[in-house]
# Entry
Amino acid sequence: MLSQKYYENVTAILREINDTQTQKIYQAGALVAEALMNGNILHLFGAGHSHMLVEEGFYRAGGLVPVNPLFDSAVMLHGGAIKSSAVERLEEYAGMILNNYKIDPGDVLIMFSNSGRNELVVEMASCAKNKGMKVIVVYSSSYKDASSKHSSGKRMEAFADIAIDNCCPYGDALVELPGQGMSIAPGSTVAGATILHMINVAAAEALIEKGGELEFFVSANIDNVPNRNKELLDKYKGKIRAL
# Structure
């Protein structure tokens, strides 16, 4: 059954991430932990379907509290899918997005882009570095030979402090349809979410080792568990606009 093939291929990708990217994930977690201990926050950005990974990391049971999602309707599908793709081709738009948010030197930005080659994400990484942010990118190295569409000729990962490979194949689709000349069923969302949560766990481990404060959301739907959500929300709602 082809559906089983998708499961097998996703499992193989997750195994490859674990085998090849663990050191970078721990480095990313340590970078996030250091920023949080210094009073900085974590920002997340993705356009198109990568936007789903931004929502996955924000206001999430079991997720970090000091997370600022760089939301912009123009690059989300609900704002118009065709328009979203067109905006991804604009270099100057990244600066406009960042200027809508309070950014401090030492903040960390995690960016998601499977290809890492479109103008918006390249410019976002560049602008973030210019503002003194630490930049972590999650991308697929299968696009390493694909030329950048940015005027600099550089790809998103060129501006990264840490670049983590999601280990997904060129084109993203994981299941080849016999006799049809096409593949379907993407893997980058599953891979990206796994990497994001691995970074969060690595950050928690680093915070424990350094004696830092663990500011994670607890699910509101479980009983008899200490819940600091309101206290943490009160602390950060002035810093994180989407709260």
